[in-house]
Amino acid sequence: MADPYWLVRAKALPAGRSTKIECCASDRSMLVTNDVKGYRGYCFRCGAKPFVSHGLFSVQELRRRKAELALTESKTVALPKDFTTDIPPREAVWLYMAGIGSGLARHYGFGYSPSLKRVVLPVYDNGKLLGFTARSTINARPKYIERMVSPSEAVFVSCPSAALPSAKAWAEASGPGVVFTEDILSAVRVGRLVRRSVSLLGTSASDAQLSRALRDIPPQAGWIGLWLDGDAPGRRAASRLARTLTLMGYEVQNIYTESDPRAYSNREIRRILTL
């Protein structure tokens, strides 16, 4: 039997976090929480108080949850204390499937946290840590934990020195000036073939995020590709972003594919971006 909607939302929360959802009306009247004892909800309109216990956990699971809770409740944003760039082979498979080998992972400072059992993807700006995304390798919920100093300003920008030498001539001749993606791994993969690839760490883009993404990129430097998810939310986000960039004087092309950019080979990415 499928979990009720409130429980699905509660299970997606990091330990110690809450969110508001719809219950008996169209407004978000129910507060759902993932707390120490279990998943619970409380509707301020109808008074419903559902609760589901976490159940019994192994010692290892309790340690992982304790580490997650400490991380999400910390007032400062820093990499996990046990962060290491030595990613175990089993966990590195997720990166390999996106075409990111150990050398490229080290170039970007990607790593692993044994206590969280998550691959950690740091986000830097000129050497300054803006935050990180940590992805579960054991199907824990939520799959991703994201911590940013300022979420409304953070973007992940590909490194020019990580681009393939064979791609430089094409990129400067007719390739895009910038390609926007949703996730970090897609930005890394596309960044192998273009002058700059930027992950918005989601679908929306604030003025501060665009400022970071377009730093030193004048409108005449080449067209901008918006390679976001092809689902309805991704298309709506791409349309909004395209309007904003067009008003700023940039030539914009929306790119829709069945899979995320990271799922394609270098040759396929170049073909998709050849307009």
Q: Can you offer a commentary on this structure?
A:
With about 280 residues, the chain is an alpha+beta fold. Helices cover about 30% and strands about 20% of the residues. The protein has nine helices and 13 strands. It has a five-stranded mixed β-sheet with strand order 9-11-10-12-13, with helices on both faces. The mean pLDDT is about 85.
Outline: globular
User: On the 0-100 scale, what is the average pLDDT?
Assistant: 86
**How would you spell out the order of helices and strands?**
HEEEEHHHEEEEEHEHEHEHEH
Number of helices: 9
Q: Tell me the Rg in angstroms.
A: 20 Å
Oligomeric state of the chains present here: single chain
- According to DSSP, the number of beta strands is 13
Strand content: 15-25%
Unreliable spans are: none
Helix fraction bin: 25-40%
Q: For the largest beta sheet, what order do the strands appear in spatially? A: 9-11-10-12-13
Please describe the biggest sheet, giving its number of strands, its sense, and whether it closes into a barrel: 5 strands, mixed
Could you tell me how far the N terminus lies from the C terminus, measured between alpha carbons in angstroms? 48 Å
**Secondary-structure-derived class:** alpha+beta
